[in-house]
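notes to self, project folder thing:

trying the whole complex as one job this time. last attempt i did each chain seperately and stitching them together was a nightmare. two parts in total, labels are on each line so i dont mix them up again. if this works i'll redo the older ones the same way
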Amino acid sequence: MEPSDAEVMATSASETGCFSTIVERHFPEIYRYLYRRVGAEAEDLAAETFTVAFRRRRSYDLDQADARPWLYGIATNMVRRHRRSEARQLRAYERAAGLGSAAGGEGREMAELPDRLDAGATLARVAAAFAELDGDNRDALYLVAVAGLAYTDAAKALGIPPGTLRSRVARARARLRDLTGACGQVQLETQPVQARADGAPNREELGKGDP
Amino acid sequence: MTDDAGADELGADELELLRRMFSDAAGSSAAPDAHAWESVRARVKRAADDELATAPSWRAIRRRPRGAAAWSGRRPAERWAKIGTAALAIAVTAGAVTAGAVLASIGPGPRHPSPPPGWRVVSTVRPVPFRAAPDRISFANHVTCPASKTCFLMATVMNPSTYSAAAANLYSSSDGGAHWRRLPLPRGAMATTGLSCTSPTSCAAGGLLFPLRHPGAGRASAPRNLTSGKPVLLTTANGGASWSTQAVPVPSARPPGGGGSKGGTLRGRLSAVSCPAARTCMGTAFAYLDRPGWPSMTEDLFLRSIDGGRSWASQVLPGQPGLVRSKPPIPPPLVLPAVLRCPTARECVVMATARRSGQPLPTLETWRTVNAGATWSRSTLPEGLSGTYSTAFGKPSCPDAAHCWVLLSRQGAAPAGRSGEPVPGTTLASTGNGGRTWRLHRLPGTGRRGYWASLSCTAPGTCWLGGSVNGRASLMVTRDGGRRWSGVPLPPKAQGSGSGSGSGSANHLYSIHRISCRPGGSCIALASRSGPAVAGSTEAVLTNG
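result (full assembly):
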């Protein structure tokens, strides 16, 4: 049976090489998280995340079998120190959504164009609204809604009580609705997202569109 | 479970919008590519190295698992015992994740986003013991600091009348360069080239081993005939307290038609050494026929050892002719002493000036392997310099396996009234794809009497540049890949109070001719008060650590 992250972390305290197991397991996910939040700086920040994790490995709470919340926490701290990059990335999303809606659809029917324009404009509004959120609330919402962490795990990642996490998510959600609603009610037909038993969204569903 | 109600409370439309926004826009770029993997592995490896370097002793490291329990009040000792079995299983089953494996994936690492603290002179003329006797000049060929305060240095003592090497010595400092002590080499051995340290205790260097009838070898006076030595790899595992020599098989073949003493003696030498891990060393070497005039045989080799130099695998660099005989004065395609950088045990970049048949001037060639020499890719640096050819000036500085920077010299131009000699540091070249393509960069101006002589890059876009601007020691740094350079203030002790701009002014340092920076941003620099020779005598050690 594959050892848990906690077991690997425990071993890595003395056998430094074992830490590479943590890197191999979680680097793609943490990289993806950072790439989506800060864009091109993700490579540097993801590497730094694991460097910091390595240095702090002896303080890892061995009761936590899964190291992902801990790694997300370090990565989120990196994002906090690069809010400008995050803002730039969100502006890029906003532009991309707008451009994407207007870009020519090769092989698509012209009849689809209004729908795509509408969807693109909606995404652009969401991007703009997400950028408007308070940083802490944005972190909370992202970890739960996009990274797919359970509330307890997201709270651990951010080092806050679950209740605080819930409040932040609620505030973010309300603010997001306000901001997008101000530009017109969000109307996008979507398939219902399957929730996991632990309350987090289904990871396969969230990961749709990933390589 | 209410705490874990999770994202379903958000509403499917919001969730879907957010998910779509991030996944659509990021697209496939959100997956780490090979470079990202290289980067993270190299940086974790670097952190492991740093930890090892600052550990009190090997024995103490081995005890750490038990000691660690005491470091955290939350972690009772029995928990460590409980996980002991699992830990052992991990160590065995995860095979590839031993400390050695991480060490083998060494790669110099992270950029340092914050500017360094101020620079200071930690050692000046008198206390620097590697300064030679008055009738000799010495210069440091290599300096490297495997830990923040532990540095090693190789210095060559030259005979000023003949400008030939009289001896080369190794030194170490345990206080960041303030004090140096000479390291004892085996009798008959002399360090000649390359100095590669993987930790404060483990270093290797290229050298020569002379027959013992030369009693001075390895001491201040050296054998008169330097060519009589046999190529060896010098290694230490105790911080330089003692060294061992391992023979290096150069030349690797018998010359065609015999290579006896009739036409001269066939000799070999290591031209560069790079050790990415404690017992894994790579080298470039050349063989030549030792007789008056131009060497008429050459064998340009890449060598690799994974057992500390006990055994070697060697191969002729692709495109090079191997051991051939030709009549002087027209040499065969010739690799001049090469520079080598191996960020990992499998990845190496070799740079050398080579002559291709039919071309009037040599070109700067790059070889790169990513599989320990099984296959190679070869490229030529763009010239862009009419009527001159380039040579690599010093080792390429490679913050990772893909990114390398190298200072180029132009040959054929007439620098400061000394025609025919290389002009150091006239151009900077960089590659972001392991040498497949190169870009030339404009360097900051140095004035008529200036030059750039040393380079150290700690991240793909972060490089330190040392040299002389208008006859004064100067240090620049770029953090955007060479687009902008900013001057680094040097202490008044280095700048001096005099207004002279030429050599010989007693109040300031003329140039910084070696610099070596660590990923954390701490650097050591060697400065010279003499000029304009690039390799002037070392007069001061500066650090920002």
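what i see at first glance: The first helix of chain B runs from residue 12 to 26.
need to look closer tmrw
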